[in-house]
Amino acid sequence: MPRPTPESHGVRRSSRARERIVNDQHRFEHWYRSNQVYFITGRCVEGYPAFDAEDAKGVFWDRFEHYTREWQFTPWATSLLSNHYHTIG
């Protein structure tokens, strides 16, 4: 009997790397499953305060709303700080 795969359980995977092993390490993968809770966070390189300016915050919120609609992600709570953000949904 074949070994079950994540895909056989409704999981969708994505990775930037085509090969499973990159530099002697397993590639980094994102796993997605419908109707699950996701906590997503991101930080600016070296803690740079990219979101200090109001116009930068406006760009973040514009893109955040665009991609949450495109990917049908419903955020429950989102916080944007000067150099990072968190969202859960």
Describe the fold and architecture:
- This protein is of the alpha+beta class.
- The chain has two domains: 1-35, no CATH class; 37-89, no CATH class.
- The protein has one helix and seven strands; from the N terminus they run E-E-E-E-E-H-E-E.
- The strands form three sheets. Strands 5-7-6 form a three-stranded antiparallel beta sheet, with no helix packed on it. A two-stranded antiparallel ribbon has the order 1-4. The protein has a two-stranded antiparallel ribbon with strand order 2-3.
- A hairpin with a 3-residue loop joins strand 6 and strand 7 (84-88).
- The radius of gyration is 17 Å and the shape is extended.
- The mean pLDDT is 89.
Question: Can you lay out the helices and strands and say which pair or pack?
Answer:
Blueprint: E1 11-14, E2 21-22, E3 25-26, E4 30-33, E5 39-43, H1 54-70, E6 77-80, E7 84-88
Antiparallel strand pairs: 1-4, 2-3, 5-7, 6-7
| Strand percentage | 25-35%
Which parts are unreliable, with pLDDT below 50 for 5 consecutive residues or more? none
- Helical amount among residues, as a percent range? 10-25%
Tell how many strands the DSSP assignment holds.
7
| Arithmetic mean pLDDT | 89
Q: How many separate structural domains?
A: 2
Structural class: alpha+beta
Q: Order of SSEs, N→C? A: EEEEEHEE
| End-to-end CA span | 37 Å
Number of helices: 1
